[in-house]
């Protein structure tokens, strides 16, 4: 699968599909909002926006330590999360417990991704990362309700904690259903399942054990975060831009999805794998030094990224879909350009995005 992905996708697109800093479990905390609301009502007419804001606020306001397990595509991975919050400061450490050692630190809007075995580090800003759920602008919950129906389920327990369970059922075939488990007292997201058309679980992420509250040591986390002596540090340069200004447009909007941001980001080399069982990519890909355009669309729950980059002569790529767990990718050549759509959505949704994208003019 990785060989196929490397052949068909840009570095940025493959990173999004395979996971990493952009998709780490701690990404559900959002920008500051109101204090945590009580549990949502006991009828199916409960407000979807209220539910999502409760999850966002809980992720922002609570301190906790726990082990987070993800099951997707027959693969299981786990991470240890330490999250500190005092109402002003957000400090977080996520340690991968499987495979190559990786630590992700967050201090407010700054992210450090460390690979101790390689002595390499990546530093970037949080406002460029995906979040779940997406922060809802005022009055935007109505648009979300056009795409999803909120269904209340029977209460359950996760990691020994009482949980309120809800299902967000799509109103069309453009997105997947989600079942969420909220810690009853705080609203902290304990588990999230992505469900296929027949109700099958495509991906499940959940705490296997969790301690909410307690006294954490934020200074120790900051000290670990900034121990970068001897590390090779990469600081990608992301430039906000506009799809139209870059000479692109979507002929028709994709139902429920709204543009969130457009970034121009560098095409970086693939990191050297530690296992000889993994493919050995070139240290510097063809076209290195060029950049890729990333346009992010969201329906409030699901994200789709469109990656647009120049087609490089002599580089073999196939216009075939790829899937890792619940996340799919679809690539196609468009004249002198190579377009890839990535998202945890049905392949037909990605086809609408790539089929609607068109080149308007040369910038």
From TrEMBL:
Q: Specify the protein name.
A: Sigma-E factor negative regulatory protein RseB
The record's listing under InterPro entries reads: MucB/RseB_C, MucB/RseB_C_sf, MucB/RseB_N, MucB_RseB
Checking PANTHER family in the record gives:
PTHR38782, SIGMA-E FACTOR REGULATORY PROTEIN RSEB
Cleaved signal peptide residues? 1-29
Q: Which stretches make up the MucB/RseB C-terminal domain?
A: 245-357
- Keywords in UniProt for this one? Periplasm, Signal
List localization entries: Periplasm
Q: Which organism is it from?
A: Sphaerotilus sulfidivorans
Q: Which residues cross the membrane?
A: none
Instruction: Give yes or no: UniProt keyword Signal.
Output: yes
CDD domains under this entry?
RseB
Which protein family is it in?
A: Belongs to the RseB family.
Domain annotation MucB/RseB N-terminal: ranges: 50-224
Location of region: Disordered = 268-287
Name the principal localization, coarsely classed: periplasm
| Keyword Signal carried by entry | yes
Q: Which domain of life is it from?
A: Bacteria
């Amino acid at each position: 699968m990785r060989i196929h992905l490397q052949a068909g996708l840009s570095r940025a697109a493959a990173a999004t599909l395979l996971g990493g800093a952009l998709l780490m479990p701690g990404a559900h905390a959002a920008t500051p909002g109101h204090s945590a609301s009580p549990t949502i009502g006991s009828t199916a007419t409960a407000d979807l926006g209220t539910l999502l804001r409760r999850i966002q606020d809980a992720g922002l306001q609570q301190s906790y330590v726990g082990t987070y397990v993800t099951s997707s595509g027959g693969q299981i991975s786990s991470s240890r999360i330490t999250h500190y919050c005092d109402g002003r400061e957000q400090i977080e450490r996520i340690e991968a417990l499987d495979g190559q050692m990786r630590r992700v630190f967050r201090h407010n809007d700054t992210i450090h991704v460390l690979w101790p075995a390689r002595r390499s580090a990546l530093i970037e800003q949080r406002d460029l990362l995906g979040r779940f759920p997406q922060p809802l602008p005022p009055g935007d919950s109505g648009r979300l309700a056009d795409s999803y129906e909120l269904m209340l389920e029977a209460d359950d327990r996760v990691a020994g904690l009482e949980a309120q369970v809800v299902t967000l059922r799509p109103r069309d075939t453009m997105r997947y259903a989600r079942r969420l488990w909220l810690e009853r007292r705080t609203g902290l997201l304990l588990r999230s399942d992505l469900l296929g058309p027949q109700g099958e679980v495509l991906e499940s992420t959940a705490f296997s054990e969790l301690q909410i509250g307690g006294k954490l040591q934020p200074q120790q986390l900051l000290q670990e975060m900034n121990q970068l002596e001897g590390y090779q540090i990469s600081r990608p340069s992301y430039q906000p831009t506009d799809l139209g200004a870059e000479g692109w447009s979507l002929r028709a909007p994709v139902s429920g999805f709204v543009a969130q941001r457009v970034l121009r980001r560098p095409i970086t080399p693939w990191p050297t794998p530690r296992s000889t069982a993994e493919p050995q990519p070139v240290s510097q890909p063809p076209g290195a030094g060029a950049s890729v355009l990333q346009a992010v669309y969201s329906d409030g729950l699901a994200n789709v990224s469109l990656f647009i980059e120049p087609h490089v002569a002599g580089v073999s790529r196939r216009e075939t879909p790829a899937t890792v767990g619940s996340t799919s990718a679809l690539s196609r050549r468009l004249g002198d350009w190579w377009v890839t759509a990535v998202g945890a959505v049905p392949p037909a949704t990605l086809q609408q995005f790539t089929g609607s994208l068109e080149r308007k003019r040369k910038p």
